[in-house]
Amino acid sequence: MLDSPTKARIEGMYVGGQWLQTTRHFDDINPSDGSVYARVPDGGRAETRAAIDAAQAAFPAWAALMHTERARYMLKIADVLERRKMDYVAAAVAEGGGWFGKGMFESGYVPEVFRAAAAMCYNAIGEMMPSDHGKISMVQRVPMGVVGVISPWNMPGILTARGFAFPLAAGNTIVLKPSEDTPYAGGLFFAEVLHEAGVPPGVFNVITCSRDRVSEMGDELVEHPLVKGISFTGSTPVGRQIAAKAGAHLKKACVELGGKDSLIVLEDADMDRATSAASFGAFMHQGQICMSVEKVLVQESVYPEFLRAFVARASKLKTGDTASKDNVIGPLINDRQVARVKFQIEDALAKGAKAVLGGRVWDRFVEPTILTNVTPDMAVWQDETFGPVAIVVPFKTDAEAIAMNNDTEYGLSAGVITRDEHRALDIARRLETGMCHVNCSSVNDEPHVPFGGSKASGVGKHGGKWSMETFTETRWITLDRGHRPFPPVF
Q: Does residue 3 surpass a pLDDT of 80?
């Protein structure tokens, strides 16, 4: 429970329905001012094993519940989340460095994730298949067991909820390890909520650790033989490692990773809509969203008009401590992220790019920055930025825009702004992305849709029935009523 908008009281890790403290703790920092937001238990392999054991012990009873009972738990969780809406907002602002409006959006969205998960409890869990021998041939989807969830810091409410709600509704039990940058908003807050909702002990567990012990805790969670599946949202380099380790142990892994997403603005675009989509897509939560608009590709005939309007719109965004609701652009989450963004800006400027807006970096703050004259040899063209930086590049033909979008190892999301829907759909089909949104930003999500990318942006899909399919096992069961004959020799 929050003591104040800027501090949190941590009861401990949550294992087997109990709050467990450790002898080691680490400082959870408010990125806006560097103050200590909370002191958090610093666990390792032993705590991870205890949580896995608790989840395994709880699995048979949870999996055996009627679908209606699990659905009721999901709805109870949603109700508690709604009652504690402002607690989450306070954490998203003080611990995560998010703008107040971003916290309000997340706190409104997350309950719907659990309502969507409740709805999935009523969906078909299998199908009947034809049989050559007149058998009753059934395909069933059954829960796997313990699912390990590793959640990120940037949208700790939405991305944590999405990572475990659907596997939980399917009958799996959960061990959640949130990011060390948001261990409360992305982890222990959910433990409080599910505890209040009466979810049985061991069904949902939360373990926390410092950055120094991430590898120890993460390796145990991925490699432990009782963990049957992994849900990960985070960076591509870490996702590659997790997917490789999961694969070595023949475990399912759904990994949603980074992006280098484009907004393609055609010459017939509504300029107000286009600049609004670009500003929101590039600068919402300081650009720290996997789907953020990092490349704005604009047809050259409207490039000057778009650039003027985009700069004018983005220049109104205020940067500073998100304790003030007026500051839409808050801090980056940590010093490593600041160094990454600063390097990309400086590298681009040194190689001939021009900052038509922003470019200033101080403490953990980066002003909304718009770069032009960007070329493919610059780091900001190829690498994910994850900061409030957008590059604006002209193109001549649709084919050129498509090639520029696809010129990256990533393939998460994209947006196309045009009045010609037929043309937009033709472009969308040729983009190497898992998602594309016409006349909207690349930043889009809904609880029940298949969310995920292609290429280096991930494997598998989160959301709705796609999560249910990922985090269940498929079984074939037959009932022989046709008396299938065996060869006489037997």
A: no
The structure tokens listed for 409 are 């190892």
Tens of pLDDT along 278-317?
A: 999 999 999 999 999 999 999 999 999 999 999 999 999 9
Query: Which amino acids are annotated catalytic?
Result: 256, 290
What was the pLDDT predicted at 133? 87
pLDDT band at 44 (very low <50, low <70, confident <90, very high): very high
Decide if pLDDT at 4 tops 90. Answer: no
Q: Which helix (H) or strand (E) holds 277?
A: helix 271-283
Give a three-class secondary structure readout of 117-154.
HHHHCCCCCEEEECCCCCCEEEEEEEECCEEEEECCCC
In angstroms, rounded to a whole number, what is the distance separating the alpha carbons of residues 34 and 364? 9
Strand runs labelled E in 200-350: 204-206, 227-233, 252-256, 261-265, 293-299
- Within 10 angstroms of residue 214's Cβ, the number of other Cβ atoms is 15
90-118 tens-digit pLDDT = 999 999 999 999 999 999 999 999 999 99
Q: Which two tokens stand for residue 4?
A: 């104040």
Is the C-alpha dihedral spanning 147, 150, 155, 157 positive or negative? positive
Taking alpha carbons only, the member of 38, 32, 13, 47 closest to residue 93 is 32
Q: Tokens 């008396």: give the residue.
A: 483
Which residues lie below 8 Å from residue 446, measured CB to CB, with a gap of 6+?
Answer: 463
**Strands, E assignment, 151-242:** 173-177, 204-206, 227-233
Q: Please say whether the beta carbons of 411 and 442 come within 8 A.
A: no
At position 138, the amino acid (one-letter code) is M
Spatial distance between the Cα atoms of 287 and 293, rounded to a whole number of angstroms: 8
CA angle, corner 434, sides to 303 and 81, nearest 5? 100
Q: How many CA atoms lie within 13 A of 72 on its CB side?
A: 9
Structural domains of the chain in order of their starting residue, each with its CATH number: 2-257+457-476 (3.40.605.10), 261-438 (3.40.309.10)
Contacts of 214 (CB under 8 A, 6+ apart): 180
Structure tokens at 285: 């939560």
